């Protein structure tokens, strides 16, 4: 079971409206008596603990709801609400941007954009102090705070934070009339949970309200012996007589153990952190990070593939955390096709000079890269020691940092947050839930400066349906000690994600087929409407390339490709996913951009992200019958989009070889000669002569042309003498006479064809 799943930052009152009767303070108050909350989440034990034990019936000291109703004489909810309302106050946070940025929280950001106060209910703690559920607002975003009660509004300011309980204290500038401080009655250790209720005060649906509910739904006992119950809403815990016995601002209230000392006057003596102390700890952490967090610059080779729509900056800035004397962990969303073009990693040194780091691998599960520093840059004194990270403590206050590089310059942001719980993720890894959004590379530290978690995104699985073209990451906090253990595994990195040489950087993996997508009419004709969901899925083979993996595996024309399974991956990819998949989007773009379909399509993109040398199972239909075959992925021969190109001096042409898919398009035999026009320079002799993109050049002065290199040699040999090229397109042939012009195009082409 997951711990504290999808809870709101202050248990949104909208959640309460669905299961409680709402009580308006000062009006006719009526509350539905609720002994439990069926939607409450169930806690899990901390990492490496045994599964939690959840008691549904006869759990001690909890009673069943029926038994509680028979034995306990509850105070009338209306009277209870009125009684507790005497200590309730209204708090308004007026927020602002901090150096042009908004908080990492949607509600807070909306408050700023809409110029509305952020509203939260609280209770008078003493004559000049108010206690509220901690809204987790970083202080620079607070413009002013006001507290209202008894018809009077006074100024307020953040005073301190409870370290182990999601509560904050405000100090008010003057006393409020008609409001009584909360008086805590000691709660006996044997207090029956079914007899306690939580009283919430807050703003919802255009009014301030009081709501009363049973305090908990699930009884949870961790294998460590700690006992707790899930709380239905943040507020005061009251006994049947209406006496306040504690605070239940956190989402779980403890019956034992050190992390939940919520009861009675004990709550007043909990560990506190003042606003000034928070600033001091953040300043100390900021200073330490200068040695631990190093500026990293990735440098990439310019994309030579004009048909590839991947947009790559020549430089990408990131932060690298020193996790060993010579090892950096660099959170980054860079994916396989981008990493393939990586040509250098520069790391800023202490003296301001940069050192060259070596690419060590891309993490298999997370969006991060490992890099190795040279020996003279190793430093064992300043490291992010993930292995010694403290144990996870739900509800505890943590310091949060984020380093970004707007305009290439480092910007460090300091804030704080609290962990709400754990959620189990892929490969049994854990995600630590917080109350604000995370950014890739954010760090969380305890108050002693020890790392607790680092925000990393999951590396998308091939065929996962994610938009791989996006630079955004799905960053989530990962427990630092668990990450340290994972990094020690030999399977931590994906050996297939590596920088490649220029001629290999755009390589693809292929099956070796031409295909067409199905539709409703075609699926009816083939009798596979049910299997293909009316033609929404399935790729029908229209041609197999000789000696391709498909041909060798025994596939045939009219077979319908349905699904791909990758060995070692639990998921399955359906061909094609038209609703939320970049493969389909790229397929549609290729239809519009060329006389033929580029190989960078739904099928080759999927297989390329799987990588070469992987075992794959392909599900397909043959005459309506389901079948499957296994094959090992292979690197495809060059296609037109990634084939080496050759610029011809003096005439303004760039040509490429007649690749395998163009032989199919142009109906050319495997041994047929010719080259294909990739680009015609504006104003060049070639453009004047009317030579267009994707036309086929078969001869020069009647002599067959075999390769781009062969054509370039023949052009050079003729110098400034005119010559004739034989041009073919769509079965029509013409002769074009060219008069070379040495000034039309510089004779320094950046050729990628073999010289």
Topology:
Layout: H1 13-17, E1 22-23, E2 53-55, H2 65-71, H3 77-85, E3 88-95, H4 106-113, E4 118-126, E5 129-133, E6 142-149, E7 152-162, E8 167-172, E9 197-204, E10 207-214, E11 216-221, E12 227-231, E13 236-238, E14 244-247, E15 252-254, E16 272-274, H5 275-292, E17 293-300, E18 315-324, E19 327-331, H6 336-339, E20 342-348, E21 354-363, E22 368-372, E23 397-404, E24 411-424, E25 430-434, E26 443-445, E27 451-456, E28 476-479, H7 480-487, E29 493-494, E30 509-510, E31 513-517, H8 520-526, E32 539-544, H9 549-553, E33 560-566, E34 572-574, H10 582-593, H11 602-610, E35 615-622, E36 625-632, E37 634-635, E38 646-648, E39 653-657, H12 660-665, E40 675-680, H13 685-688, E41 696-700, E42 703-704, H14 708-718, E43 723-729, E44 732-738
Antiparallel strand pairs: 1-10, 2-11, 3-4, 3-6, 4-5, 5-8, 6-7, 7-8, 7-16, 9-10, 9-13, 11-12, 12-15, 13-14, 17-18, 17-20, 18-19, 19-22, 20-21, 21-22, 21-29, 23-24, 23-26, 24-25, 26-27, 27-28, 30-37, 31-32, 32-33, 33-34, 33-35, 35-36, 38-39, 39-40, 40-41, 41-42, 41-43, 43-44
């Amino acid at each position: 079971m997951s711990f504290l799943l999808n809870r709101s930052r202050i248990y949104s009152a909208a959640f309460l409206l669905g299961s409680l009767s709402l009580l308006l303070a000062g009006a006719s108050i009526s509350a539905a008596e609720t002994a439990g909350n069926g939607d409450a989440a169930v806690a899990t034990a901390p990492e490496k603990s045994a599964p939690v034990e959840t008691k549904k019936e006869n759990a001690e000291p909890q009673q069943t709801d029926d038994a509680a109703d028979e034995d306990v004489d509850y105070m009338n909810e209306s009277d209870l609400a009125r009684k507790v309302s005497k200590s309730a106050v209204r708090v308004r946070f007026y927020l602002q941007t901090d150096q042009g940025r908004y908080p990492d929280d949607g509600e807070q950001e909306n408050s700023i954009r809409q110029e509305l106060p952020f509203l939260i209910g609280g209770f008078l703690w003493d004559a000049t102090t108010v206690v509220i559920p901690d809204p987790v607002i970083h202080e620079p975003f607070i413009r002013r705070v006001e507290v209202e009660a008894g018809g009077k509004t006074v100024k307020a300011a953040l005073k301190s934070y409870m370290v182990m309980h999601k509560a904050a204290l405000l100090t008010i500038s003057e006393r409020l009339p008609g409001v009584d401080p909360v008086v805590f009655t000691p709660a006996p250790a044997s207090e029956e949970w079914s007899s306690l209720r939580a009283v919430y005060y807050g703003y919802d649906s255009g009014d301030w309200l009081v709501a009363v509910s049973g305090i908990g739904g699930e009884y949870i006992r961790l294998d460590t012996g700690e006992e707790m119950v899930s709380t239905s809403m943040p507020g005061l815990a009251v006994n049947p007589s209406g006496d306040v016995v504690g605070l239940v601002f956190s989402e779980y209230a403890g019956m034992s153990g050190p992390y939940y000392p919520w009861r009675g006057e004990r709550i007043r003596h909990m560990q506190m952190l003042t606003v000034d102390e928070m600033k001091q700890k953040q300043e100390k952490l900021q200073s330490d990070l200068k040695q631990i967090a190093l500026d990293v610059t990735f440098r990439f080779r310019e994309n030579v593939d004009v048909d590839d729509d991947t947009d790559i900056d020549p430089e990408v800035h990131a932060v690298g955390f020193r996790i060993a004397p010579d090892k950096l962990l660099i959170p980054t969303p860079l994916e396989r096709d981008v990493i393939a073009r990586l040509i250098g990693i520069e790391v800023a040194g202490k003296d301001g000079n940069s050192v060259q780091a070596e690419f060590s691998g891309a993490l298999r599960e997370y969006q991060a890269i490992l890099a190795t520093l040279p020996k003279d840059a190793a430093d064992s004194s300043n490291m992010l020691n993930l292995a010694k990270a403290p144990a996870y403590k739900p509800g505890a206050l943590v310091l949060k940092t984020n380093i970004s590089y707007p305009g290439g310059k480092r910007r460090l942001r300091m804030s704080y947050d609290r962990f709400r719980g754990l959620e189990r993720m892929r490969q049994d890894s854990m995600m630590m839930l917080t109350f604000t959004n995370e950014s890739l590379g954010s760090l969380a530290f305890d108050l002693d400066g020890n790392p607790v978690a680092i925000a990393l995104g999951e590396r998308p699985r091939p065929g996962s349906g994610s938009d791989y073209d996006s630079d955004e990451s799905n960053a989530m906090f990962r427990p630092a000690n668990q990450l340290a253990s994972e990094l020690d595994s030999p399977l931590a990195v994906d050996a297939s994600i590596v920088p490649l040489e220029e001629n290999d950087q755009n390589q693809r993996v292929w099956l070796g087929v031409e295909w067409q997508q199905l539709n409703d009419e075609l699926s009816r004709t083939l009798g596979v409407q049910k299997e293909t969901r009316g033609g929404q899925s399935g790729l029908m083979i229209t041609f197999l390339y000789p000696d391709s993996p498909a041909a060798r595996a025994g596939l045939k024309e009219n077979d319908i490709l349905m699904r791909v399974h990758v060995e070692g991956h639990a998921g399955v990819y359906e061909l094609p996913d038209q609703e939320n998949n970049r493969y389909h989007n790229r397929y549609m773009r290729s239809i519009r951009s060329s006389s033929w379909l580029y190989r960078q399509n739904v099928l080759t993109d999927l297989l390329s992200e799987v990588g070469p040398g992987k075992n794959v199972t392909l599900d397909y239909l043959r005459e309506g019958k389901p079948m499957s075959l296994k094959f090992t992925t292979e690197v495809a021969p060059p296609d037109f989009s990634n084939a080496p190109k050759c610029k011809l001096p003096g005439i303004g042409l760039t040509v490429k070889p007649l690749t395998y898919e163009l032989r199919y398009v142009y109906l050319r035999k495997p041994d047929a000669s010719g080259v294909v026009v990739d680009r015609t320079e504006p104003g060049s002799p070639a453009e004047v002569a009317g030579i267009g993109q994707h036309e086929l050049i078969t001869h020069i002065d009647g002599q067959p042309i075999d390769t781009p290199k062969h054509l370039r040699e023949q052009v050079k040999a003729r110098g400034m003498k005119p010559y004739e090229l034989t041009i073919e397109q769509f079965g029509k042939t013409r002769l074009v006479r060219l008069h070379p012009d040495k000034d039309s195009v510089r004779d320094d082409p950046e050729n990628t064809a073999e010289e």
